[in-house]
Amino acid sequence: MSAHWIAPSILSADFARLGEEVDAVIAAGADLIHFDVMDNHYVPNLTIGPPVCEALRKHGVAVPIDVHLMVRPVDRIVPDFARAGAGFISFHPEASEHIDRTIELIREHGCRPGLALNPATPLEYLDYTLEKLDLVLVMSVNPGFGGQRFIPSALRKLEAVRRRIETIGRPVRLEVDGGVKVENIQACARAGADTFVAGSAIFGSADYAATLRAMRAQISAL
Q1: Does residue 65 sit in helix, strand or coil?
Q2: Among the options 31, 39, 134, 177, which is catalytic?
Q3: Which of 36, 39, 66, 194 is catalytic?
Q4: 36 flagged as catalytic
Q5: Residue 1 pLDDT exceeds 90
Q6: Is 189 helix (H, G, I), strand (E, B) or coil?
Q7: pLDDT single digits (tens) 13-58
């Protein structure tokens, strides 16, 4: 994998051909697959659960599956996704009764824990958790729906999180999710992101490989 990872979000894929769609973006150069889990409770939408994650693994998907839990409560579903083949599991601090316990639960089940921050979520949640995380996910839209417009203040948040990561002296991925496309991915990378979730920008394009190449070219031009 390169230092910068691109994670197509299957929320924007054709679900009638999901295995084929995932194969196509991996062949096009995706580093990992982003898996959006929504419960119609924490967010106003309902998507997919562990059986779909397990089905992708059985289908032969070998790249890491980056599970983003937009659910409440969190802890009940973590073991299921670990068994289903998740690599990273991120959750929202507002959705957990005990954030530190949830982080430990994810790691105990063999996955890499991440904390997801909504546009208005304060960075103070990282004060006592960052050293235990493998990933921080900065939302550049409000969670719940694909295809939303990028919120520019996310760039300032990415910069602030990157400064925090640099002070702890251990590798933590910094992921940005929401409205990421060819036109703004360079700004996200400049702000400190190294992992980029893109849904409609990739799956809505006519040529997945060309879109991924264009995104990487923007990042490389920094």
Answers
A1: strand
A2: 177
A3: 36
A4: yes
A5: no
A6: helix
A7: 999 999 999 999 999 999 999 999 999 999 999 999 999 999 999 9
